[in-house]
UniProtKB/TrEMBL annotation:
Taxonomic path: Bacteria, Pseudomonadati, Pseudomonadota, Alphaproteobacteria, Acetobacterales
Source species: Acidicaldus sp
Domain (Hydantoinase A/oxoprolinase): residue spans on this chain: 215-410
Classification via InterPro entries: Hydant_A_N, Hydantoinase_A, Oxoprolinase-like
Residue stretches spanning the membrane: none
Pfam family, one: Hydantoinase_A
Domain named Hydantoinase/oxoprolinase N-terminal: residues: 17-194
Protein name: 5-oxoprolinase
Length: 410
């Protein structure tokens, strides 16, 4: 998409941007102050050209150079859905996290609720825990709110100092009955922050509901993902200084950037997809739809029957979570799913080429993928696909490279 150069007569405020930052592509819709709508697509990762796809896309649509600052007051608001938290969870690339529990409860989250989703499996493979270490701190508040055992603050200080010395930067605090009587959790949170933990998630604030296990699981997720999310949000907010910035949450609502938390961000991108599909369908006279959102990395399916279906206790990527979110079924299959040949048969996925290097046709030495198969078959024609590839970011898909790689495979 070509954009006119930036000139002073475009300094009037009022630009609005809606952004979907997926695992492979970032798609942007912009409305100019005069009401004109424009769209733009770019790779979510292209480190040779830009640091962040959303900011780069906004600058391109405004006609600014990628290294130029955005003039204050030019943008009214930016609303974004992102898979940053989703990918961090799937790839287990969150913050190193310490879990703090009552004495005797170190294994509570490992034991969980003892659910056996595959009852007849002889070999049970438990999902990896998000927290790296767990520490038991003496002190107990009873179900009636009375203090049974005083909190051992000195032991807490020693444990926090030792964990920080080992490089742990996030802390999840989960205590018995804290949903109603949070005094011990509050004090432990103060001590953790004093010890230098940048992220402290206390269960009474994250998920103030009954039942220790789901409350604990959700608190650990929040501590594990929030620092990753916060760094990304702060990066975008800094580039858009003075602009109202909102993020889509897993339940389909928007949150101001400073209130966007890890536990509410896991389905940020997919939730925006079903909300957009439902509103578009209603405008066209279709009140009931099944949303099928196939991207470069995953495919999301959801039902809209006049109301959005939501779940409150779910399991995502082997992690239990209690937080309101859209009822969306996701499979790891998309245009970037890699094609494998084991000498006898072709297999698709579940690994993805993502945006970097991307499919073979993206001109970045990537592997053959589902997208490349469609290019080879003519179902995807380069002349009808955005020319956003190559070192300059303006070349079409490379069909010749795809045909060569398939010929070599044969």
């Amino acid at each position: 998409m070509e954009n006119p150069p930036f000139t002073s007569d475009r300094l009037s405020p009022g630009w609005q941007f809606w952004i979907d930052r997926g695992g492979t592509f970032t798609d942007i819709v912009a409305r100019a102050p005069d009401g004109r709508l424009t769209t733009h697509k770019l790779l979510s990762e292209n480190p040779a050209r830009y640091d962040d796809a959303a900011v780069a896309g906004i600058k391109t649509m405004l006609g600014l150079a990628l290294d130029a600052p955005i003039p204050p007051g030019l943008i009214d608001c930016v609303k974004m859905g992102t898979t940053v938290a989703t990918n961090a969870l799937l790839e287990r690339k969150g913050e190193r996290t310490l879990l703090v529990v009552d004495r005797g409860f170190a294994d509570a989250l490992r034991i969980g609720n003892q659910a056996r989703p595959r009852l007849f499996d002889l070999k049970i493979t438990l999902p990896s825990l998000l927290h790296e270490e767990v520490v038991e701190i003496a002190g107990r508040i009873g179900a009636d709110g009375g203090e049974i055992t005083p909190l051992d603050e000195e032991a807490a200080r020693r444990a926090f100092a030792a964990a920080r010395a080992r490089g742990l930067a996030a802390c999840a605090i989960v205590r018995m009955h804290a949903w109603k009587y949070p005094d011990h959790e509050r004090r432990l949170a103060e001590l953790a922050r004093a010890a230098g933990f940048a992220q402290v998630s206390a269960s009474h604030a994250v998920s103030p509901l009954l039942r220790l296990i789901p409350r604990g699981d959700t608190t650990v997720v929040d501590a594990y993902l929030s620092p990753i999310l916060r760094r990304y949000v702060d990066q975008v907010a800094e580039a858009l200084a003075g602009t109202r910035l909102y993020f889509m949450q897993s339940h389909g609502g928007l949150a101001e950037a400073r209130h966007f938390q890890g536990k509410d961000a896991i389905l940020s991108g997919p939730a925006g997809g079903i909300v957009g599909a439902a509103r578009t369908a209603e405008a066209a006279g279709f009140p009931r739809i099944i949303g099928f959102d196939m991207g470069g990395t995953s495919t999301d399916v959801a039902l809209y029957d006049g109301t959005f279906e939501r779940a409150f206790e779910t399991e995502i990527a082997g992690v239990r979570l209690r937080a309101p979110m859209m009822a969306i079924n996701t499979v790891a299959a998309g245009g970037g799913s890699i094609l494998h040949f084991d000498g006898a048969r072709l297999r698709v996925g579940p690994d993805s080429a993502g945006a970097n290097p991307g499919p073979a046709s993206y001109r970045n030495n990537g592997p053959l993928t589902v997208t490349d198969a469609n290019v080879c078959l003519g179902k995807i024609q380069p002349k009808h696909f955005p020319a956003i590839f190559g070192a300059s970011g303006d070349l079409p898909l490379d069909a010749a490279c795809v045909r060569t790689k398939f010929a070599d495979l044969a």
